[in-house]
Amino acid sequence: MASTLAPSHGRLGVVQGTALYIASVLGTGLLVLPGLAADVAGPASIVSVLAVLLLSVPLAGTFAVLASRYPDPGGVASYVRRALGDTAARAAGYWFMFGVCAGAPVVGVLGGEYVSAIAGIDRSMVPVIAAAIFVPPFVANAFGVRVAGWVQFVLTALLLAVVVTVVALAAPAALPQNFQPFLPHGWAGVGTAISLFVWAFAGWEVGTHISGEFRDPRRAIPIATGIALVVTGACYLVLQIITVGALGGAAGEGQVPLLELARLGSPGFGTIAVGVIAAIVALGVMNAYLAAFAKLGASLASNGDLPRWFSKGLESGAVPRRALALTAGVVAIYFALMVWSGLELTPFILVHTSSMVSIYALGMVAAVRLLERWSIGWWLAVVAAVLCGGMLILALGSLLPAALLAAAAVVVTVVRRVRASRAQESGGPASAEPVPVPLAAEPAGPAPEQKGARPENRPRPEASDSVRASAPSA
């Protein structure tokens, strides 16, 4: 049976997509994690990088399969809608839009902290620098994901070039004796380092929201994911080896470990290099995530989970400027709260990470239900679901923000059902869920989905949502 997927009208190719994927994963962890991991695990922190890299394969692979087969701006929320219903999808959407978004000012402030420390600028100027970091990504995304993609390509190329240069300059300072003893803190230290690097390899879900912007999602997304996985893994692994070998026991002592590493090879260049890395990382992460936030916001609006006014620009190739403006408002609120708290990062990091873990766990459950049983993609989803379950258990203490957003999704469902019940009693329309805005014309007379049908023969999320809109809410 021929696939019912509508042809993509996106403009992203493999190069731009790879750059966006790399930026979403190779984030601010590059600045601090190698030193922190070396501090808690010593030379064995290298093992932790390898372990997390291997654990990332099923997660990244599952998202690549879903994004390439079901390109939809709703991302994980659209997959959850198909598999688990509207309420669960709404929760996933709120987690990303209003929970993960709390990480945006964290990125800006971290970039500002590094730049101010390295340039000798008074710390009172950090909020100003952070605000300046927000501007270029918002401007780039206001012109569309294609412009943002090329901007990201330039940023990623610069980032990789500077990281390679820093590693090359510091490599001669690596000493064999710094790798002994290999397990100074035992395997418990390795476990702690693994938990740190888990967050370094997060970000694979970002590509699901811009999957419809690829010219050929089925070809480009798996290639971009594979390249990004290799590049980010190699960067963290090589950087960890050089950090341990060159800095030894002092690797976790400084607040700016990457700066110490850079100074070993070239004191003059080191300061400039780390300042450039910090700025590029902050700009790159913001640029990649804003494209996802904007598309998701428009998708949520099309399904009635946000005001309809924000749905403009949902179509492939269009620019969701209204949803981007909403994202700017959410970021501004979090940023204002952060400045008011004295640039305290921990509460905002907890909101971000708890929402991210919840999205991953729910997304993997949806993938297990959506993908063809016993296929490679299905097995990847099963392994990833088990891993995400473990992450969810580890994060239980910080899940309150995610629970509150999930409660908001449930409240929306209850309100809609009450309204639908009242409308039915008064003789009005009884539909509890609004009809989503269609993204593309539906194929004429699609065959009903059969149990066990191959995923590629299923309709697109947006097409099925249109058909399903009259069904009762989950």
From TrEMBL:
<feature type="transmembrane region" description="Helical">
    <location>
        <begin position="150"/>
        <end position="175"/>
    </location>
</feature>
<feature type="transmembrane region" description="Helical">
    <location>
        <begin position="227"/>
        <end position="248"/>
    </location>
</feature>
<feature type="compositionally biased region" description="Basic and acidic residues">
    <location>
        <begin position="451"/>
        <end position="465"/>
    </location>
</feature>
<feature type="transmembrane region" description="Helical">
    <location>
        <begin position="12"/>
        <end position="33"/>
    </location>
</feature>
<feature type="transmembrane region" description="Helical">
    <location>
        <begin position="91"/>
        <end position="112"/>
    </location>
</feature>
<dbReference type="Pfam" id="PF13520">
    <property type="entry name" value="AA_permease_2"/>
</dbReference>
<feature type="compositionally biased region" description="Low complexity">
    <location>
        <begin position="429"/>
        <end position="449"/>
    </location>
</feature>
<feature type="region of interest" description="Disordered">
    <location>
        <begin position="423"/>
        <end position="474"/>
    </location>
</feature>
<feature type="transmembrane region" description="Helical">
    <location>
        <begin position="323"/>
        <end position="343"/>
    </location>
</feature>
<keyword id="KW-0812">Transmembrane</keyword>
<feature type="transmembrane region" description="Helical">
    <location>
        <begin position="187"/>
        <end position="206"/>
    </location>
</feature>
<feature type="transmembrane region" description="Helical">
    <location>
        <begin position="378"/>
        <end position="396"/>
    </location>
</feature>
<keyword id="KW-1133">Transmembrane helix</keyword>
<feature type="transmembrane region" description="Helical">
    <location>
        <begin position="402"/>
        <end position="418"/>
    </location>
</feature>
<feature type="transmembrane region" description="Helical">
    <location>
        <begin position="268"/>
        <end position="290"/>
    </location>
</feature>
<dbReference type="InterPro" id="IPR050367">
    <property type="entry name" value="APC_superfamily"/>
</dbReference>
<feature type="transmembrane region" description="Helical">
    <location>
        <begin position="124"/>
        <end position="143"/>
    </location>
</feature>
<feature type="transmembrane region" description="Helical">
    <location>
        <begin position="45"/>
        <end position="70"/>
    </location>
</feature>
<feature type="transmembrane region" description="Helical">
    <location>
        <begin position="349"/>
        <end position="371"/>
    </location>
</feature>
<protein>
    <submittedName>
        <fullName>APC family permease</fullName>
    </submittedName>
</protein>
<dbReference type="InterPro" id="IPR002293">
    <property type="entry name" value="AA/rel_permease1"/>
</dbReference>
<keyword id="KW-1003">Cell membrane</keyword>
<keyword id="KW-0472">Membrane</keyword>
